[in-house]
Write a structure and sequence with these properties.
Protein name: Alpha-L-arabinofuranosidase B (ABFB) domain-containing protein
Bound molecules: beta-L-arabinofuranose
CATH architecture of the largest domain: 5 Propeller
Strand order of the largest sheet: 1-4-5-8-9-12
Helix content: under 10%
Family: Belongs to the glycosyl hydrolase 43 family.
Number of domains: 2
CATH topology of the largest domain: Tachylectin-2, Chain A
CATH class of the largest domain: Mainly Beta
InterPro entries: AbfB_ABD, AbfB_ABD_sf, Glyco_hydro_43, Glyco_hydro_beta-prop_sf, Glycosyl_Hydrlase_43_Enz
Number of strands: 30
Keywords: Carbohydrate metabolism, Glycosidase, Hydrolase, Polysaccharide degradation, Signal, Xylan degradation
Site (Important for catalytic activity, responsible for pKa modulation of the active site Glu and correct orientation of both the proton donor and substrate): 308
Oligomer: single chain
Structural class: mainly beta
Radius of gyration: 23 Å
Length: 465
């Protein structure tokens, strides 16, 4: 996000195992069960027009026959990446084509359009999965026009009500989810538009806590969580904190969360309305509640934006809070994890620092990784420094992750790091512009391995697809 110059008042600016170079394709080998479509690359076959698949052509939705001898273009047009619904909702999904555009309804016609980031677009592009007319098939109900379903009519796709052609409607609106005509990429590891991933290993599972992306001005208001045992297959846990009803002092700009565990409780730190809050729960997937009823670090507390919290807990059990856009800050958290000594806040001077400070420890070295440039720039990247304590002093080493235009990878950053338990294997989670057609508010989350040299310095991370 943009840098706010020190001294300027923060403005309420409107502002997605086995890893590495090898590609791991995660696709369903079985049709989905009724009323469910797993995330990932999928094709949808009409139940009453056997051999015809849901596809787009000339930016409009339709159905057409696709078979093994069909052209690569026809197969691609009949393949969609299924993601959690852009507008949220349990059991609701969205469909992204290979060109990055999304299926949405407009004037009741199903079309393929770029994400406009508006609430209307997000709702128009979200469909809730219902049982289909035959076993194993699904129907797709509009999230903002309940009672209307995606159905084919004269080979065109429309958002219709069952009262239209009632004798054929059920079959016209039912599809079997099949293996995709075109295999998907390994990444993004969580399907859909997410950013600022905070990765952690808690209670035997890996967790990802991201910003939900795709909104104009990064204006999301809900936090979600994913978990995995292998860093490949991720379970979506739905909304774990919703600013609107659950946080009294902020309703928007839900960004860049982080998690900590202490005293048998989980502490979820988050940016909201350019302040930092904390919420607690007995479970890593919530529900989380706000014990303070006010920000932990309010906007204007120091120069720069009070966003992008991260908590590092040292081997002695002491936890430290890091945060800041424009300037990097850190402070020891009190044992209650929801307060700190205002007089003990430290500011760090780090070359090129913009945001997303993330600290981890390996052996006796502390690593402070951070993001540089603007998240809307393809040049957004990750640099790091090492120190002998959680407060440094920091020795800058330079860039460890940056764009790879040969692979279409732009703007990789807002990183976090996790150690595979009981090993010296490390991973970095980060976001990049969604591929293809993404930008600084349409980002996606991936994970690559983080490797060290014998002297403890970090090798450049190889971004993979
Ligand atoms: O996602 C919103 C903002 O963009 C984050 O707080 C920044 O770190 C940048 O990734």
């Amino acid at each position: 996000m943009p840098l706010l110059r020190p001294g300027r008042k923060p403005v309420a600016r409107a502002m997605t195992v086995i890893l590495g170079a090898s590609v791991v394709t995660v696709v369903a080998t079985q049709p989905a069960h009724a009323a469910e479509i797993p995330a990932g690359a999928r094709s949808l076959q009409s139940v009453n027009m056997a051999g015809s698949y849901l596809r787009h052509t000339d930016y409009l939705g339709g159905i057409a026959a696709v078979g093994p001898t069909s052209s690569a273009q026809a197969k691609s047009d009949a393949t969609f990446t299924v993601t959690p619904g852009l507008a949220g909702g349990t059991g609701c999904v969205s469909f992204q084509a290979a060109n990055g555009m999304w299926l949405r309804h407009r004037d009741y016609r199903i079309r393929l359009e770029a994400n406009a980031g508006t609430a209307t677009f997000l709702a128009d592009a979200t469909f809730c999965v219902r049982d289909g007319s035959v076993s194993g098939s699904v129907r797709l109900e509009s999230t903002n026009y309940p009672g209307r379903f995606l159905r084919h009519r004269d080979s065109e796709l429309w958002l219709d009500a069952p009262t239209t052609n009632p004798t054929t409607f059920a079959a016209d609106s039912s599809f079997r989810v099949t293996t995709p005509w075109v295999a998907g990429r390994r990444s993004p590891v969580i399907k859909g538009l997410y950013a600022d991933p905070n990765i952690a290993h808690l209670n035997g599972r890996y967790y990802l806590y991201p910003t939900t992306d795709g909104y104009n001005g990064w204006n999301g208001s809900r936090f979600t969580a994913f978990s995995s045992t292998d860093l490949v297959n991720w379970t979506h846990h739905g909304t774990i904190l919703d600013l609107g009803p659950q946080i009294s002092w902020a309703d928007d700009r839900a960004w860049a969360p982080t998690i900590a565990y202490r005293n048998n409780r989980y502490y979820f730190y988050f940016s909201a309305a350019t302040s930092i809050g904390v919420a607690t729960s007995s479970s890593p997937t919530g529900p989380f509640t706000d014990p303070l009823g006010r920000p932990l670090v309010p906007a204007g507390f120091r120069s720069g934006q009070m966003i992008d919290p991260h908590v590092f807990t040292d081997t002695d059990g002491q936890s430290y809070l890091y945060w800041g856009n424009g300037s990097a800050y850190a402070v020891r958290l009190n044992a209650d994890m929801v307060s700190f000594d205002l007089g003990q806040v430290r500011a760090f001077s780090l070359p090129n620092y913009r945001e997303a400070a993330f600290v981890f420890r390996r052996n006796n070295t502390y690593y402070l990784t951070y993001s540089v440039d603007d998240t809307r720039s393809e040049n957004y990247h990750v640099e790091y420094a090492t120190g002998t304590s959680p407060f440094g002093p920091w020795n800058h080493h330079g860039t460890i992750l940056s764009k790879n235009l040969n692979l279409g990878i732009k703007g990789p950053g807002h990183q976090s790091v996790v150690q595979a338990p009981g090993s010296d294997t490390w991973y970095m989670a980060y976001h990049r512009f969604a591929i293809p057609a993404g930008n600084g508010t349409n980002r996606e989350v991936t994970i690559d391995q983080l490797r060290f040299n014998a002297d403890g310095t970090i090798q450049p991370v190889t971004p993979t697809l």
